[in-house]
Amino acid sequence: MHRLTSSPVWATATARGPRSVNADATAAYTDPSTGEVVFALADGVGDEQSAARAAQVAVATAVQVPASQGPAAALAAAQRAVRAEPAGDCVLVVATPVDGGYRVGWVGDVRAYAWDGDSLRQLTRDHTLAQYFRDRGQVPTPRMEHLVTTSVRTARPEEFGHAVAVGPAGLLLTSDGVHKVLTRAAMAELLRVPSNSAHALVDAVLAAGGHDNATALMADLAPALPDLTTTPLPTVTPA
């Protein structure tokens, strides 16, 4: 359990699903001198160990960047670390609590949602070919949903997504193995049940027959809501 002054409680859950490798990764780090927290969730591109390594390196690097520098700095640091690897790529979302809300940065199709105890509000916008065509009034093909237009290895700084959630809220980070199986309404329904959190979402994905890795990280800034049981996060040191 993590409950520092002005810091959220968080929980994570992940499942490999039918894939050969679990290429999703999560990390969180609390600065002992400031109490500031950084959260990160990455989804490796592909079903290989190099994809899993890229995701692990990305989140481990991102959460070590001081929250005061902001998510863009965390994304840039993760990019340098992934580019130093011989192979592998991933998509990444980073979030830092600030002023009762969150600052979020991302590349690719991982997502962040604000949770008010009843409903979810999507903070990110997918960097996919499908979203690119939707934004231009065209109907994408189903395959385009899985083609990302930015990634940690390839994105230019001006392509980093950024958003702010204002006001007290919970935070949900998901890989596409969660939000492409469960609708936002279905996720909210699961989260309304006391003690349900990231684990409930991943369990629901498995029950629905998801075909991808599924990972969720749930953080809560509202002390009136039930505590979340925390799954220990692995410590990864970039090579």
Automatic annotation (TrEMBL):
SMART domains: PP2Cc. InterPro entries: PPM-type-like_dom_sf (IPR036457), PPM-type_phosphatase-like_dom (IPR001932). Residues 9-221 form the PPM-type phosphatase domain. This is Protein phosphatase.
